[in-house]
Amino acid sequence: MLGVIRRWFDTDEVRETGTTPDYRFSLANERTFLAWIRTGLALVAGGLAAAQFLPPMPIAHLREGIAIALLLLGGAVAVRAVDHWARTERAMRLGRDLPASRFPAVLAILVGVGALVLVAAVVVQAFDGA
């Protein structure tokens, strides 16, 4: 595990691995990394917004649960982004297939389930207020 994390920061190790790919591919990999970082930041911002601005929910501590889930998911996306960037850069330099990832599907499912939980909370609150 520490070896993987070390690779994220060791630029010499990246440059010494394999051959330098076409710079356009490296730049595309970096743009993908930045898109994932923006997604992680948006989830963190959503978590902070949920903690600060959501009204009390009909289910005890639902607001806090939503905030914590979004914050943790945002952190996971950021860490996953740098790991995927490093693995992809390494694969390109070694002429291997790009690494496959289930993370986008997992993230989509988590966001979809979270949305369903929020819909249920809104419906419960609407009927409690009626």
TrEMBL record:
InterPro entries per UniProt: DUF202 (IPR003807), IM_YidH-like (IPR052053)
Ranges where the DUF202 domain occurs: 24-91
Transmembrane segments: 33-54, 66-82, 103-127
Topological type in the membrane: Multi-pass membrane protein
Cleavable signal peptide: none
Pfam families: DUF202
Cell compartments where the protein resides: Cell membrane
Keyword tags: Cell membrane, Membrane, Transmembrane, Transmembrane helix
Domain of life: Bacteria
Name of protein: Membrane protein
Annotated organism of origin: Phytohabitans aurantiacus
Lineage: Bacteria, Bacillati, Actinomycetota, Actinomycetes, Micromonosporales
